[in-house]
Amino acid sequence: MEPNPPDPSSLLQQPFFERDPRIAARELLGCVLLSRKGSVMTGGRIVETEAYLGFEDAGSHAATKGVTRRNAVMYGPPGHAYVYFTYGNHYLLNFVCEPEGTAGATLVRALEPLYGIAVMKLRRRGRPIQELTNGPGKLAVALAVDLTDNACPLNEKEIFVYEAPCSPKERIAVSGRVGLTDGHEHQYRYYLLDNPFVSRGRTGPVRRPDFAKDRSRP
Question: Which terminus of the chain faces fewer neighbouring Cβ atoms within 10 Å, N or C?
């Protein structure tokens, strides 16, 4: 049986995101992420995140000569979704952080499924529950997140995030980021230690062909 939906009074407000992505990424662990597409609700507890900073962060989309068509959302108001398509087959969901005008985002890398599990299994073509949302691309498919969600404010239409602190027994681990050629060494990945729904991604550099254009991501 699925748990009751979170209390609307626990929705995370804009000030939560209007700060350093590394703080937000850590404190998002345990929070509940819900996607409501039409009448269907899917989601679960956030168990893994990564923080991405501004132009000084080589692994970030903001590591450019300025604002671009792609990274403009990262400079926008905090508390909005930043969704992009990468490596030819994945949508990734991020939350914009920092005050408006400063680039920053937190990538949601994995969820512990709690709501709409049957629907998520259909979207993920019958995968077992441990593999429904244990990675950012898988998570987007399970929650039906795509580019129509990009730049949308959280907690208003389809993507909602609720405060739900971790259990005192849960321990937070920190590591380098996953799937980057540059900036992978920064200890900006946060996850719940020993949680079975954390992704299996390995930290360290990813070597891609010279012609690959997308070498970073928030």
Answer: N
Residue from 4, 30, 19 nearest 195 by CA: 30
213/203 Cα distance (integer angstroms): 20
pLDDT reported for residue 95: 98
In whole angstroms, give the CA distance from residue 4 to residue 218: 32
The pair phi, psi for residue 131, each rounded to 5°, is -110, 10
What does the pLDDT look like over 120-134, one tens digit per residue? 999 999 999 999 999
What predicted TM-score, i.e. pTM, was given to this entire model? 0.92
Structure tokens at 91: 């949508």
Q: In 144-173, which positions are buried (b, 16+ CB within 10 angstroms) versus exposed (e)?
A: bbeeebbeeebbeebbbbbbbebeeeeeee
Q: Which residues lie closer than 8 Å to 95 by C-beta, 6 or more apart?
A: 17, 24, 28, 79, 80, 81, 82, 105, 106, 108, 154, 161
Q: Look up the CATH number of domain 10-192.
A: 3.10.300.10
